[in-house]
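Lab notebook, bench 4. Still working through the backlog of constructs that have no structural model yet. Next entry is a single chain of 137 residues. Request: give me the structure tokens for it.
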Amino acid sequence: MIRDARAGDAAALARLLGQLGYPADAAAVARRLETLGDDRLAVAEVGGRVVGFAQLHVSPAIEYDGAAAKLAALVVDEEHRGAGVGRALVEAMEAEARTRGCVLLFVTTAERRAGAHAFYERVGLEYTGRRYAKRLG
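Model written out:
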């Protein structure tokens, strides 16, 4: 089941962020949830337990006659990978992006995440280039 995230999901989201390599405690995640604005944060539940989540961020784009949607975060619990949870989350985010008038869905991912790259290609995204970043804090 895919549903919108709630404040009560903070501990589960923190656990999943840790698996993705971004350790955080539930209090920090709860604070972050309050700052997401118009972003959609959806969770996947299996047996009443949160086993994955995805965040969609929509921005106007000067390059296109429509907005661009960034799959800003996606993680599936290690024990549930390969069972269709990630695909369901991506499909939900793609549907949301279409509803919001987006003409592009994209994701950035670290070079070291070969498994994620293969997954993104399986769900229909294509490799288009590189991302450069600079930490500001």
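Notes after review: The chain has one domain: 2-122. The longest helix spans residues 85-99. Flag for follow-up if needed.
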